[in-house]
Amino acid sequence: MKAAAEEIERPSALKSIDGGGSVSVCHGPDRGGDHAGFYDVEAVRADFPILGETMHGYPLAYLDSAASAQKPFQVIEAEYAFYARDYANIHRGFYVLSQRATELYDQARRKVQAFLNARHEHEIVFTRGATDAINLVAASFGEAFLNEGDEVLLTGLEHHSNIVPWQLLREKKGIVLKAAPVNDAGEVPLDEFIRLLGPRTRLAAFAHVSNVLGTVLPIAEMIRAAHEAGAKVLIDAAQSVAHMKIDVQALDCDFLVFSGHKLYGPTGIGVLYGKEELLDAMPPYQGGGDMIASVSLERTTYAPLPAKFEAGTPPIAQAVGLGAAINYVTAVGLHRIGAHEAGLLAYATERLSAIKPLTIVGTAVQKASVLSFVMDGVHPHDIAQMLDSRGVAVRAGHHCAQPLMARLGLPATVRATFGLYNTTAEVDALTEALEEVEVMFLQ
Question: Is 400 a catalytic residue?
């Protein structure tokens, strides 16, 4: 069933942004994918309407992509086109719109499958986000396969989303939680992780990239060690999928989760990848429409994967938008995106290191796209407010990682994070604003 054309005339709301009347194509940089070397950041920026905004009279320097990335026209327009021309509920209608919507939804799943190199399309489960996906695994896998005394191994870098679901399971089933320690550089030493693997370790769950420090964990080695100990592995890839290529078959992880909104896609949608044999063996997470094969008042039989885990009306438009986001980053090229962001991180590290009262937090050898820091005598919240007055958007706080903050001995940090659209000029704006903070508060 043929869907409506992806390229449409912009609605009036989009026309008012830039005065244009036709769709923006992915002109940035040159659609060369991962094999091209040239990176035209200005062409990329032209695809993001919000980057033309000013804040307090200054050009917006959006340095908070780790919290949520901005959206290109291609994603905005994919959702608009779906609502304007293709909208209907899916899997339930014999009429054209429903069949068209179903095909677009199924296409989005296939795009995720290819993006992660999953073996099967039905190994991709759409969720509300990475948090929802981890909760699904904790509730379903944990309910079926974890018993009192069984161990779940985390790390000291984890986001609360990869801590609290396991604590809830601990209260319910009496499992044991352990966490591999973090060293002063913000790394998780591999030998420390391996040391904590034991005969009762049933699952290891850890981030690919720290949302606070940008530390890139050696996940291939960690997965291999966990499997050798007989444990399954869940990877929280919320902070990595937008910056580097992930191949779930090469990694051999058992589960992997990410959120659409950090991948330049919509909010309200995420992904759980799970190996077919595990998802088949796990009980449903929620009950309702579309996850059933048959229902009587006496019993219910469940639909096959992935529908078994997608109760109710799914995030159809958001899935379409996520598919468009995957198209976008694939066209730009994840290797080129990563290289561009690595250059920004190195430049920002050099510039901020020259500010004497400022200390960069997290000095891991392998880092990605995150720069956290503190300034002697100035609260991070005051720094963030001062930067905002200069048009620079950063995050300040504990970043939903309070155990890590306790390990670092800090109540909060300021965090600047970089995406495919950021520039050295924006790093300069950050640096100059921080120099003003130094003058205002410390001199």
Answer: yes
